[in-house]
Amino acid sequence: MKRFVVIVAMGVMAASANAQDATTVRLQSREIILSPATTRAFLAELRDSAGPALHGLAYLIRLPTNAERRALARSGLMLLESLGRGVFYASVSRSYDSSAAAVRSLLRTLAPLTPADRVAPNLWQRRYDVYRASTAGGDTINYVVNADSTLRVTVRFHRDVPVAAVAELLRRHGAAAPIMTGPALSAVVSRSGLEGLAGAEQVSWIDADLAPLLPDNDVSRQAIGVEQVQQFSVATGHALGLSGVGVRVGVFDTGIDEAHVDFQGRIIPQAISQVSLHGTLVAGIIAASGFASDKPDSWGQSNGGTPYQWRGMAPGAELIEQSTGGTVSEFVNRLYAYISSGGDVSNHSHSLGEDGYYGDMSRSMDEVIRGDWTVGSSPVPPRLQVYSAGNRDYGLRYFKVNKEVKNALLVGNWDVSRNRPFADRDLEPPKIHATALGPTQDGRIKPDVVAPGSSVRSTAYWNGATPEGFVCPQSTPGTGAGPRRDFYAADCGTSLAAPVVTGVVALVLQQYQETYVVDLDDDPPLPSTLRGIVIHTAKDLQGDWSTDVNGQPLTFGGQPAKGFAGPDFATGFGIVDAVAAVNVVRERRLRHGALANTCEVRSYAFTPPGGVPVKVTLAWDDPAPPGSTGDVARLVNDLDLVLIDPDGARHYPWVLGHTVTNPDGNPLAPEAQVCGTDPTVTRTLTESGPIDNTTVVAAVPGRDRLNNVEQVVAPYVPGVWRAEVTAFRLEQSQVFSLIGVPLLIYLPKPEAMRTLCQRIPRLCRPLFEQICARIPEICARPPLWELRDDALRLMFRAEQDRMIVPFGDLCAGLGDAAGCRPPSDSLPWHLRLGPTYPASLSVEIFTSSGRRLDGAIIGSRAQVLRWPAVPGDSYLVLRPTAGTQLHTPITLPIMIGR
Length: 898
Description:
Blueprint: E1 2-3, E2 23-26, E3 31-34, H1 36-48, E4 53-60, H2 66-74, E5 77-84, E6 87-93, H3 101-106, E7 107-111, H4 121-124, E8 132-134, E9 140-142, E10 151-157, H5 163-172, E11 176-179, E12 185-189, H6 191-198, E13 203-208, H7 219-223, H8 226-230, E14 232-233, E15 238-239, E16 248-252, E17 267-269, H9 277-287, E18 318-322, H10 328-340, E19 345-348, H11 360-370, E20 374-375, E21 378-379, E22 384-388, E23 391-392, E24 409-415, E25 420-421, E26 434-435, E27 449-452, E28 456-462, E29 484-491, H12 494-516, H13 527-537, E30 543-544, E31 562-563, H14 578-586, E32 590-595, E33 601-606, E34 614-619, E35 638-644, E36 650-651, E37 654-655, E38 658-661, E39 680-683, E40 700-701, E41 709-714, E42 721-729, E43 734-739, E44 745-746, H15 750-759, H16 768-774, H17 776-780, E45 785-787, E46 791-794, E47 803-806, H18 807-813, E48 829-833, E49 841-847, E50 852-858, E51 863-867, E52 874-880, E53 890-897
Parallel strand pairs: 16-18, 16-19, 17-18, 19-22, 22-24, 24-27
Antiparallel strand pairs: 1-39, 2-3, 4-6, 4-7, 5-6, 8-9, 10-12, 10-13, 11-12, 14-15, 20-21, 23-26, 24-25, 28-29, 30-31, 32-43, 33-42, 34-41, 34-43, 35-36, 35-42, 37-40, 38-39, 44-45, 45-46, 46-53, 47-52, 48-51, 48-53, 49-50, 49-52
Helix pairs in contact: 9-12, 12-14, 13-14
């Protein structure tokens, strides 16, 4: 077994010049042992440097608080990006004071960097052949080396480097036409210019620029429940259920045949002129109407289907057509343009660059998905990206996913007909294709899910002359007069599995906007929420797929391809389930929260449905780590999920392929892993092997230290449960999504309302019975409220509506599972409400005996109400005023404090 990482002992230890002040950092370029000797070398280099500061590595005793970071900065040591386990990129000024209290209490060692440490190894060592690739048309190109031998690269500078200094360095080293957009600058440099830039200590990382689009190549709908969700009417040609109406999907591909009758004007083109089979297939899987299924194509040949047979997952969605070529910055500009056009989710059935490598493209996509990238001065709004896992020419083998992104949803190919991952033995080398298996190089669970992608029939385009390769064996679409259009073709690969999931996400988004009454442009779900929904609701797949359909061993590398209970590296969390995904939204089992400091905890009380195991999934869009590190963990913010059942038992998430130990190598139990410390992580499955039945094993409950998604599955116990989310290690504030924990919804029954009206008559004038007689709908569909993101969301349907909210429910929903536990002193509680402009409503606090404690009209200004130190059996009562808009959702921000 190979131990990865920056290897650092747990706990807080005093700084001293001995062996504990040394640690090994594995960069892409080399391993560096940080020690007192490297500190002396760094300070000597700082003394001899001409600039105001020098960038290098700083190794700390423990993770600093925000106040300690500021104290270090005042001492001349500015922490920049974390490389994990207490090691940071740092800027040390010439005024650095090594005797300052903050430095003495926190800093272990410093280390300088060399030019090779700032460049992707294949670029630095001039191994340019790794950047050769075959395009969809069969041409072989090198997407880094230009015809004049210059190089297309991305350059990142440390974040404290002024823009003027960046421009001067690029000019000095001959970088042609750098695109000054976002944190990664795309530039063209000579080979000597690249070495010159690498010698500039202000540079943090240089990598290859974006690869060109390299494609990853009716049963699907039934297999994943889309038929049930759509409830499609062949008679009318429309879905009676969900169809993706109101959702716009970005298709980043090689071009779509916009004239295909199945798209019926639902494509929004954006400066892409080419048309391709691949792009048209992908677009059709997402949103084809299926109109031409039983009709002749443009050559007069019958398509031979039944009415609407080959429609897509979301036949009512609109498509925004985009290409993927150019530089990283240009690609992000296209993402920004698609989002600006109302894009809600995007499909990417293409590669990102050098396979199996967390390069600058992966880092950039993680930043874009999280919302950490800007175009000019405009932030790129966070949106989910769905990617194909890749088809590698090695059969079913591990470590072959060709995207390393954390925040995207990665989809593998599931062969529904044979109930196994797609691995076609009928194709001769080098045409053997199979769905890529995980994990990533740092051991994360990928793919996230699988979907049908084998022999999927969808909308097609044929130019009538130049062959465009299929993955599945089949005859070409023939020859005729001009291009062939309005027909369908089948192909295989993860390229066709990814749009299946993208289409399902479109259905989920339609349900989301209907359930929560939101505009997706103004109030979309977080990318982590959508990723979490798909993962949470996937159906687990188990089996041994190391043999073919005839029972013969699959000999591609001799590796076992197995699926176990829980997540695994062959199928992720399972096959996508559209019915379950839509239902988890319809049932409002989604929560959001935020953590600001290491060891901070958010707690949520909930009552799970009976008869089935309790399942909760935590997902977050993690900050992007530096690309300079090797196969170390890419996780930056490490959150922990635990479920506590009514009996007090603690249930932990799945852990796959790694263990957590103390410095002596002994496993640490989940409860012994203390937040803010640096445990050692040992991976049980590594690319260097062995990869066999001793290392390809099932997930077990524990504390996950690698992934930005965690899932707990526990036996059902009746009663109130609690979900706790803890910041085990936090480099910056983090928003998270919790799937499976219902929002608190208070739906009073008529009997309960009648009792309250009898106790507190003035709440219900006219009397409850009179309301029911006059407005039956109020009793048939009682008013409801929900607590979402620290705000009450409610809607009044009539002037007589009353929202009666028990304080216990309110406090539990705001994070106090005990229901606002009484404080040890007699200080009153304060309830800060509002503002709700332009809406207004009346808010009052009553005891169960009918005594009014406080009240106010909430509108364009927030109001603070008070209630006793021991809340007891009391209620928050909300009612409309003359300024309240009926039948209009109202959001009332709410905060409880003392």
